[in-house]
Every structure is written in C-alpha cells, then in structure tokens.
Amino acid sequence: MRIPLLAGNWKMHKTLSEGSALVEELLAGLGNHTDREVLVCPPYTALAALRPLLENTPIALGAQDVYFEKQGAFTGAIAPAMLVDVGCRYVIVGHSERREVFGDDDATVNRKLHAALEVGLRPIMCVGESKPQRDAGQAEAIVTAQVRAGLHQVSAAQMADVVIAYEPIWAIGTGDTATAADAQAMHAAIRATLNELYGQDVAESVRIQYGGSVKPDNVDELMAQPDIDGALVGGASLKAESFLRIIHFQ
Ligand code: PEP
Predict the structure, then answer these.
(1) Which of 86, 124, 151, 235 could bridge across to 47 with cysteines, CB 3.0–4.6 Å?
(2) Homologous superfamily of 9-247 in CATH?
C-alpha cells in the first residue's frame, strides 16, 4: 500500500522565527493520521533550528536540494551527509526551479539522486513539462524521458526510498492546476514507465506526488485519483491553515 506523502516546499521563504511559528501551528493542528505522511522542506538556514521542534513528531524534515559531491571546494553547496547530520529524512532533487534557474539537467539530477540514496536520504525527484511542450503534445514523452534519465542506474531495491513528483511547470505558482484527469493520466504514464524499468511490484509501490498549485479547494479531487500518492505543495504550504487543510484531504 502506498502511503500518501504531503510535502511542503517552502522555497526561499521563512526566517527562523517564521518557520518555527509555522511548525508549531502545523503540529497543533495535525491530528492523529496514520494513513498519510507529512513533510516540510524549509530553506537550509532553518533546518538545524527546526530539527528539535520536529523530533518525535509525525512531521518529517527535508531539504529542497543537495549537491552530489561528498565534500570539498564547492562554495555554497551542501553535501548529502550534512543534510542527514541536521536530521533530514528527505531531499527534493530536480525541482523545475533548480532545472530552470540553476541549470540542473537530467544527468545532474541523477547524480544528486544517487548521492542522496547513498547516505540514506529519500529523494523526491521532480519531473514535469513546460507549457509549450504540453501544447505541442510532447508532455508524456518529455516527462517519461526525465523519469528514465533521472533513475539511470538506480536499482529496484533503491526504488523503495525514491518518491517521484509530477509537477507541470506551467502549474507551479500560477494558480493553474492540471485537471485531476490530466494529472492522473500522467501519473499512470509514469507508473507504466516504472513498470517497464523495474516490473510491476516496484511500479505499484513507488509513490508519485502531484505538484502545481495544489490548494485546499482542489486537493480532494486530485488525491482521489488512483495513481496520485500525495502532493508537493509550494505556496499553500506557507500558511498553516491551507497546508493543514491539504494534509487533511478526504
Ligand atoms: C512547488 O514548489 O513544488 C509547487 C508545486 O509550488 P506551488 O504549489 O506554489 O505551485
């Protein structure tokens, strides 16, 4: 059974005090779900401070990116083991903003994913097409190619720790969500690709999140789709009220 993962990607938002306040509010409103998993991915600067607040709670801690080298002269970069050291369980790799703004290509995403797995982090690998690619009818080909390239030389056993997030670029931060039917169709295509790569057991066990303007008013319909196993949430994860409503999806 796939346990849905509701993850908040805070991007470049929240000071220490703002992040702590948000976490306190989330913890207060979380309730006792055993059928879903919750994760927050604050900026690097807040990870160490939030760790003690989240320890022994149902909210896991994750980072928004990682570098693939272990250590060395890589100014500004953060190594996978450093994330483990501050209590991270998950790390996002290949977010479209990393791909578009910082130039991460599929090969880089694949290296980051391997580096995360090597230290026991669970990578959330983001894939997604642009608007022109969708309009040209290339969405499925683009996304499934990103899946194949990002998972290059990842073993079936390692897939137990991998989460995939389908995030159409045109839906991120725009308020323009994919319809539940379009999202489901892409998730099914991603799962079919996993089936080709790893067989049915792995394909059926890997969680595929949807991301792109997930909000309180569309989360229920999206989460009702058979191949959507949670959400990667940007804007709506920055306020406790909206993220809690997303966490409490029906
Ligand atoms: C994201 O940052 O991954 C995202 C999906 O953002 P938003 O929910 O704001 O569209």
Answers:
(1) 86
(2) Aldolase class I (3.20.20.70)
Between CA 101 and CA 132 the distance in angstroms is 18
- 248 is annotated as an active-site residue: no
Going from the Cα of 52 to the center of ligand 1, the distance in angstroms, rounded, reads: 26
Residue pair 64/41 in contact (Cβ under 8 Å)? The answer is yes
Mean per-residue pLDDT, 86-98: 98
Query: What's the whole-model pTM score?
Result: 0.97
Residue 214 Cβ inside 6 Å of ligand 1? The answer reads yes
Which run of H or of E encompasses 90? Answer: strand 90-93
Catalytic residue status for 95: yes
Amino acid at 94: G
